[in-house]
């Protein structure tokens, strides 16, 4: 009996210890460090090289003054952690934020508006790209500042275009001609694709070039019209008559085996985030960049994206967090330092006057594109609408399983349903 | 039958006292696991059931909306499409899984040299992570430069774009999950095969049965309990498919490989509609329950014969 009770008691003790030790880890909000400095917690999901780039900026900020110390904590899944922290405490003070999420999270009062800080410190809104600010705004309140901006431009393989004796295209007709001329088939095997068509998500950009928009001004679908038809007719011609691409051609190719780097694709739409990959792996690659070609009526279009810095509502040091954000985003020298470190374009327009941008031909097409690039509509259901309604129908169209008319009709109907079901404040 | 030497009532009294004590000890020993089970399984399931009647979005709202979520669910075409997708997957995957792992187990159920190494190799894919496996499989399934189409071209067949075409995307997932799961089911079948008595084979052989007859009339019926286990686990796993659909095809193309769990994840974590996602999860759980019961009914009618 005694021996049995000893075993039972020791088991209870062990279990109690285990239960106690499993208590909370990580993620505490900032506090006071020794020496009276305010410590800010900064969350982001950039790891590896990205983490080093962010750390460079964080260290520079910490060195530039001695009242605030920022600590960057890499979070693999920053959004889920943010969700948990918003309900259970432990929110960070600054978050490295993908701007289009603002439409979904701002209505839930988890972000701290920064309008008052902007006014108080005299930060000029005109210095930032209007579209980027729009993305961070909800109901006329601004929730952060743009840190990076990016837009897609047309990258082309210089050698292939020269061989075909063509200039970089400036409109859809020239784009079609260049794609046809640079495509090489070997029987039923595609060796070189003239134009990459592996991303139906670029429909938004093509639609803008045809003179249309994805949503109307009161946030209903706007694709089932002659502009949407123009895009699909163009795509249909490129795929079926000119045969410049094969579905699935670029699957699984990336980094060192990227299709553009290895000369398997002659032209594609992509953004400045690929520059470091192309430079690193493309020893034999000579590429050029031009702004996206204009559509049949001369309209230009591109989609702007990028990151911003926001302050969660639960932060205990919003003023200090604002200082950090202002230092990084609204200051020309720091914006240029950030651009040099990470090869990203800053959201602060005056930074582009710096020779780093003005003297480098690589950046000029992007700067031109940013002039007319538009951000995605700020509807919380926009991305799920694209993913569940529009892109699946486009994929069926591109595999010739659905007509253009049917595709546009279904995208419109299903898109409207998704937008309605995911609208703000149920 | 000998008569008891002790009076029946006294014997039963001391037996029950000992039994009660042992029962108490037993409960004490399983209490830790039951506690963990209650806290991490039962309570969250109960909460999810409650949340499915609300518009909970983690951050701001938690109001009772009654049957609204379920009404929306019935009109949600995409949700029912995901059910169809996962049914197609299950109908192809489960029989193939059972068959291939059984054949592998029969093949490796001998004491030849190298058999242990072969068993290990067949089991290794089970240990790979879905992401690592998907990275390799996407490369293998590439239409121009992949291994699969390369082998097919030796026979003069131009292989399709496995992952990107709507008709072959589900097949790609089936291939990859089969590769990952036959290993563990093979181990289960090997264990089952050890339990088949040798004298059955001997007597069958004496009566002139061929190898195939042995397989059909002895091995397969003897393995009914094992098959029941493997098929039920397969069905439950198949209806919950997520990892491979997420990493290999991201639910595409054209929603051909979107699964219910994928949609639940999307609605709950990306769109923050936890209430609706909970209702979707509950309908899925009921479906899994129904299919498991059907599977049990089919298998129960054939008890194993010893």
Name the descriptors:
heterodimer, A: 426 residues, alpha/beta, D-Maltodextrin-Binding Protein, domain 2, 5-stranded mixed sheet, 17 helices, globular, B: mainly alpha, MetI-like fold, 13 helices, 73% helix, flat
In short:
The complex is a heterodimer of chains A (426) and B (306). With 426 residues, chain A is an alpha/beta fold.
How would you describe this structure to a colleague?
The complex is a heterodimer of chains A (426) and B (306). Chain A is an alpha/beta fold and 426 residues long. Chain A has two domains: 38-150 and 305-375, D-Maltodextrin-Binding Protein, domain 2 (3-Layer(aba) Sandwich), CATH 3.40.190.10; 151-304 and 377-421, D-Maltodextrin-Binding Protein, domain 2 (3-Layer(aba) Sandwich), CATH 3.40.190.10. Chain A is 43% helix and 15% strand. Chain A has helices spanning 2-21, 49-64, 78-88, 102-105, 115-121, 130-135, 158-163, 172-182, 203-209, 226-241, 275-281, 318-329, 332-342, 355-358, 363-372, 382-398, 404-421; strands at 38-44, 68-74, 94-98, 137-138, 141-142, 144-146, 148-151, 153-157, 184-186, 189-195, 265-270, 287-290, 303-305, 307-310, 345-346, 374-375. Chain A has a five-stranded mixed beta sheet with strand order 2-1-3-14-6. A five-stranded mixed beta sheet of chain A has the order 9-10-11-8-12. In chain A, strand 9 and strand 10 form a beta hairpin. The model of chain A is unreliable at 23-33 (pLDDT under 50). By secondary structure, chain B is mainly α. Chain B has a single domain (75-300), classed as Orthogonal Bundle (MetI-like fold), CATH 1.10.3720.10. In chain B, 73% of the residues lie in helices and 0% in strands. In chain B, helix 3 packs antiparallel against helix 10 (224-239) and helix 4 packs across helix 7. Chain B starts with 7 loop residues before the first helix and ends in a 6-residue tail after the last helix. The A-B interface holds A 4, 8, 11, 15, 79-80, 83, 86-87, 104-105, 107-110, 188-190, 246-249, 251-253, 380-381, 383-384, 387-388, 391-393, 395-396, 399, 401, 414, 421-422, 426 and B 25, 28-29, 32, 55, 57-61, 65, 72, 77-78, 135, 138-139, 141-144, 146, 158, 161-166, 251-255, 266, 269-273.
């Amino acid at each position: 009996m005694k021996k049995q009770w000893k075993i039972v008691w020791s088991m209870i003790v062990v279990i109690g210890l285990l239960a106690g030790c499993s208590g909370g880890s990580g993620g505490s909000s900032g506090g006071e460090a020794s020496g009276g400095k305010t410590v800010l917690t900064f969350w982001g999901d950039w790891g590896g090289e990205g983490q080093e780039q962010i750390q460079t900026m964080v260290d520079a900020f910490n060195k530039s003054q001695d009242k605030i110390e920022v600590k960057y904590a890499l979070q693999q899944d920053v959004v889920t952690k943010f969700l948990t922290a918003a309900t259970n405490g432990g929110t960070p003070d600054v978050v490295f934020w993908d701007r289009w999420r603002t439409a979904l999270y701002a209505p839930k009062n988890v972000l701290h508006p920064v309008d008052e800080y902007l006014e108080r410190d005299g930060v000029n809104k005109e210095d930032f790209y209007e579209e980027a600010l729009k993305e961070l705004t909800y109901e006329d309140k601004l929730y952060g500042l743009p840190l990076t901006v990016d837009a897609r431009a047309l990258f082309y393989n210089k050698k292939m275009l020269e061989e075909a004796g063509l200039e970089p295209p400036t409109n859809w007709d020239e784009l079609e001609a260049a794609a046809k001329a640079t495509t090489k088939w070997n029987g039923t095997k595609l060796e070189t694709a003239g134009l990459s068509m592996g991303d139906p998500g670029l429909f938004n950009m093509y639609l803008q070039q045809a003179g249309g928009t994805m949503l109307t001004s009161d946030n209903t679908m706007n694709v089932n019209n002659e502009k949407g038809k123009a895009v699909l007719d163009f795509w249909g011609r490129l795929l079926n008559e000119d045969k410049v691409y094969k579905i699935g051609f670029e699957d699984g190719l990336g980094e060192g085996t990227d299709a553009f780097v290895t000369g398997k694709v002659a032209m594609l739409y992509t953004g400045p985030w690929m520059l470091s990959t192309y430079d690193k792996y493309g020893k034999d690659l000579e590429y050029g960049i031009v702004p996206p070609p204009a559509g049949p009526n001369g309209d230009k279009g591109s989609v702007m994206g990028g990151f911003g810095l926001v302050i969660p509502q639960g932060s205990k040091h919003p003023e200090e967090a604002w200082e950090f954000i202002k230092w990084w985003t609204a200051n020309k020298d720091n914006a240029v330092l950030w651009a040099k470190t990470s090869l990203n374009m800053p959201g602060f327009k005056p930074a582009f006057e710096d020779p780093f941008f003005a003297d480098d031909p690589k950046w000029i097409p992007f700067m031109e594109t940013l002039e007319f690039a538009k951000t995605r509509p700020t509807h919380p259901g926009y991305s799920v609408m694209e993913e569940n309604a529009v892109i699946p129908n486009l994929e069926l169209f591109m595999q010739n399983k659905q007509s253009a008319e049917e595709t546009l009709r279904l995208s419109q109907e299903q898109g409207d349903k998704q937008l309605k079901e995911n609208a703000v404040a149920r | 039958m000998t008569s008891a030497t002790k009076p029946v009532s006294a014997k039963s009294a001391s037996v029950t006292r000992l039994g009660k004590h042992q029962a108490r000890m037993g409960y004490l020993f399983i209490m830790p696991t039951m506690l963990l089970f209650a806290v991490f399984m039962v309570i969250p399931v109960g909460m999810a059931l409650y949340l499915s009647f609300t518009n909970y979005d983690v951050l701001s709202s938690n109001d009772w909306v009654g049957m609204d979520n379920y009404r929306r669910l019935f009109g949600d075409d995409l949700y029912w499409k995901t059910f169809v997708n996962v049914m197609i997957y299950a109908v192809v995957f489960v029989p193939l899984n059972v068959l291939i792992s059984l054949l592998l187990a029969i093949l490796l159920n001998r004491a030849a040299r190298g058999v242990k190494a072969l068993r290990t190799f067949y089991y290794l894919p089970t240990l790979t992570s879905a992401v690592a496996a998907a990275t390799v499989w996407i490369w293998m399934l590439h239409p121009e430069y992949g291994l699969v189409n390369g082998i097919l071209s030796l026979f003069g067949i131009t292989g399709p774009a496995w992952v990107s075409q709507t008709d072959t995307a589900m097949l790609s997932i089936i291939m990859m999950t089969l590769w990952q799961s036959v290993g563990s089911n093979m181990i289960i079948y090997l264990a089952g095969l050890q339990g088949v008595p040798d004298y059955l084979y001997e007597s069958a052989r004496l009566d002139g049965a061929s190898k195939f007859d042995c397989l059909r009339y002895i091995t397969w019926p003897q393995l009914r309990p094992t098959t029941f286990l493997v098929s039920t686990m397969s069905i439950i796993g198949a209806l919950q498919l997520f990892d491979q659909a997420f990493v290999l095809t991201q639910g595409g193309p054209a929603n051909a490989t979107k699964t219910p769990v994928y949609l639940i994840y999307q609605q709950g974590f990306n769109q923050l509609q936890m209430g609706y996602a909970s209702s979707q999860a509950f309908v899925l759980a009921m479906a899994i329950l129904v299919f498991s019961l059907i599977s049990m009914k089919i298998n129960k009618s054939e008890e194993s014969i010893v």
